[in-house]
Design goal:
By secondary structure, the chain is mainly alpha-helical. It has 12 helices and 2 strands, in the order ααααββαααααααα. It has helices at 2-8, 10-26, 39-50, 55-79, 91-94, 97-114, 119-141, 147-172, 178-198, 209-215, 221-243, 250-259, and strands at 84-85, 88-89.
Amino acid sequence: MIYKIREKFSDFLDELEKSLEREAENFNIPKYLIKGKRLRGIISYISGNIHKVPKKISLRVAYALEMVHGASLIHDDIMDNAETRRGGNVLNRILPTSTAVIIGDILFTKALREISEFPLFFRRLSNAVYEMALGQYVEDTVKISDEDTYLDVIYKKTATLYEVAFEAGALLSGFEDPILRDAGRMFGMAFQILDDCEDYLEDEGKSTLPHILESLGAKDPITLSKDKASFYLRGAEWNLERLGYLGEFWDLLEYMWERV
């Protein structure tokens, strides 16, 4: 399904990839480290199309969202003492850690500079960057042993950026859309829970939902975790249906249900 989605938006994604690859070359970042599904960029583009946002602006917004996401991964890998990502070394195994930190900082700030002329979007994305950093801090300093703390952390680290992506078209048009934002929150929560389910065996010892449920005595923590992801997905669908946008986002939702 993800290939179907990428094909559907291939022209837009080709332009986006060129911009991101140029950025990677500027800082000697291997191309495999900037590859990804581009879901945040695609979602922001769909949202922009709903609100008749010009493609040129949608590209800048998608670029900013994917840059923020990429910068957060660089910092995550450093904080987690990770060794590999997408089949190769993480950036701080290729370059000095101090250099990787600065590159992450540059990508964050460049993303914000790219969209600074759009005040509502700028404010929302700035807040998301703050929440993402705060989520990383909590994850690094607090023992996450209960579901509520876990959900708060993944909201900060993952769902806040999906909120911005879903609401992008409205924000760029000068108004807020709390229902669309909430659809993004629920989509992002489901996305991270499903990621944690897929990494269950590799992430032994990490405080993810399956491991938390397992520590509390659950016999089938993966099924219980996927039930929670399904709850959030249904919420996202309900919000999109209320707005009349279910069709525009259907392929993405279908992709998520396939993961469930």
